[in-house]
């Protein structure tokens, strides 16, 4: 790795607890960072991201986890700040597995659990410089690719190399820095296209999962709330990308999904097919004619996998019900209803 000069990289440090903030700032200073802007509330943090160009964001997540995780997602979705690919390092006092999982799932590059040594922090920062992970994009996640091993499904979410301005800055890579804005713009375009594809696919998969028949000739329940949310997100992303002609298609898509709530009994097949066509059409209008049909194998594989999971759950539920029935007969639950009445009274 080229020689690094941490003093060249601007850092934005967020921590609402001043004692913790001073400790983290000291560690960053010991590593070699000198341009450290400290903020203690979310308003100033958002201002720092909007008006500044930090190469590294360090944010404490323990006290304001929901807000910080939402903020990180907003950064990755290009809704906040100037660089959706800024290196993000979260810190936390929490060892709760749910908290750690949410921190990982929001799209941050790394998470450090407190207390930590300066040496440990520097090792993690160096990893983010020399070995930062490529990103993957799904309908609800943009962030580092944390898949552990190659598999057949890896092709379903291609890894995307994103700009690492922290690396370019500390290594004084003038060539990379000179094309930084163009680099970010190109990566944003790639990520946006992949995310739109993923959102449209999510709607198509939902419909096909419902229309296809599994074992027992049963159709999966149509998740209309999820489809409506996806359609609205598709419209928002298209408007943000200034593709109004494609966004207009999503207006019809949203109306068709809403109409399903008024249906009694079986859902109309023609409407379901139209929803699929509108989803694919919105993406095609954005991608200049590129169709979701190139994703047909991926869609079929996803539907098949989901169908298998639903069938496995149904079989497991049936097995448990049979076991419960046998156990109920064994403890006399069928004799004059007396045990049931006793249980009801408990």
Describe the fold and architecture.
This protein has 346 residues and is of the alpha/beta class. The chain has two domains: 6-178, 3-Layer(aba) Sandwich (Rossmann fold), CATH 3.40.50.2300; 182-346, no CATH class. The chain is built from 13 helices and seven strands. β1 (10-14), α1 (18-31) and β2 (35-39) form a beta-alpha-beta unit. α1 crosses α5 (118-130), α8 runs antiparallel to α11 and α10 packs antiparallel against α11. The longest helix is centred in the C-terminal third of the chain and has 35 residues, at 296-330. The protein is globular and about 65 Å long. The N and C termini lie far apart (69 Å). Residues 151-155 and 334-346 have low confidence and may be disordered.
Task: Give the key terms.
two-stranded antiparallel ribbon; 13 helices; Rossmann fold; disordered C terminus; five-stranded parallel beta sheet; 346 residues; alpha/beta; single chain; 56% helix; globular
Annotate the secondary structure layout.
Layout (H helix, E strand, L loop, with lengths): L9 E5 L3 H14 L3 E5 L2 H10 L4 E5 L4 H12 L10 E6 L4 H9 L4 E4 L4 H13 L4 E3 L4 E3 L20 H6 L3 H5 L1 H32 L12 H17 L3 H16 L9 H18 L9 H35 L7 H8 L1
Parallel strand pairs: 1-2, 1-3, 3-4, 4-5
Antiparallel strand pairs: 6-7
Helix pairs in contact: 1-5, 8-9, 8-11, 8-12, 9-10, 10-11
